[in-house]
Design brief:
This protein is α/β, with parallel strands linked by helices. Helices cover 35% and strands 18% of the residues. The protein has an 8-stranded parallel beta sheet. The N and C termini lie close together (8 Å). The structure holds ribulose-5-phosphate and fe (ii) ion (FE2). Ribulose-5-phosphate binds next to strand 2, strand 3, strand 8 and helix 7. It catalyses: D-ribulose 5-phosphate = D-xylulose 5-phosphate.
């Protein structure tokens, strides 16, 4: 079976106990740490930056860290996040003056790079940079906050993105972010996603392992 990655968004973790929360969610079976960076400019919320990423690395977190930049401008923060130990860096194409350059900046340091598409952002932004993409991230909510509901039209968009990726023959992950739960992850998988961000569904649950196991069972059912 193809591999599928579950990436809990620490946006919904207890920030007062962040190191422990990340350890716990990884011990519960998560593959990747999803790290939401918001600047109160590109999105109407303010979260965490490279110092917190570095602190997680210093705390002994070795799992891949998936940095989702919701910032404008983009390029200034890329070097800081690479230095802080990011594994993936994704950004919104509308927030970058030069998309190809931002991707090159990320890739030149050996980091995985990706573009993030808001619900109303067309997929054609990826067309001429596919060779520089390791991941395409579709937002299934408008960015800025955790705990929102999955926008159903994203399922068709996932199918469209999956077709583009498959037609390219390139090894590009298709990530989904926003409102992902155990009860919709099966149809999300069937629509083509292979990397799943889930914040509130995991961190608001009493037992992280129970939710992650449920999600894996649903993914496996869709992938059969
Ligand atoms: O990028 C994000 C919001 O902009 C978050 O990653 C996303 O909302 C995750 O939270 P939830 O699973 O609760 O929807
Ligand atoms: Fe995110």
């Amino acid at each position: 079976m193809k591999d599928f990655l579950i990436a809990p968004s620490i946006l919904s973790a207890d920030f007062a106990r962040l190191g422990e929360e990340v350890e716990n969610v990884l011990a519960a079976g998560a593959d990747v740490v999803h790290f939401d960076v918001m600047d109160n400019h590109y999105v109407p919320n303010l979260t965490i930056g490279p110092m917190v990423c570095k602190a997680l690395r210093n705390h002994g977190i070795n799992a891949p860290i998936d940095v989702h930049l919701m910032v404008k401008p983009v390029d200034r923060l890329i070097g800081d996040f690479i230095e802080a130990g990011a594994s993936y860096i994704t950004f919104h194409p509308e927030a970058s003056e030069h998309i190809d350059r931002s991707l090159q900046l990320i890739k030149s340091a050996g980091c995985k790079a990706g573009l993030v598409f808001n619900p109303a952002t067309p997929l054609h932004y990826m067309d001429y940079v596919m060779d520089k993409l390791d991941v395409v991230l579709l937002m299934s909510v408008n960015p800025g906050f955790g705990g929102q509901s999955f926008i159903p039209a994203t399922l068709d968009k996932l199918r469209e993105a999956r077709a583009k990726i498959d037609a390219s023959g390139l090894d590009i992950r298709l990530e989904i972010d926003g409102g992902v739960k155990a009860d919709n992850i099966r149809e999300i998988t069937a629509a083509g996603a292979d990397m799943f961000v889930a914040g509130s569904a995991i961190f608001n649950a009493p037992d992280y392992k129970t939710v992650i196991d449920q999600m894996r069972a649903e993914i496996a059912a869709a992938a059969k």
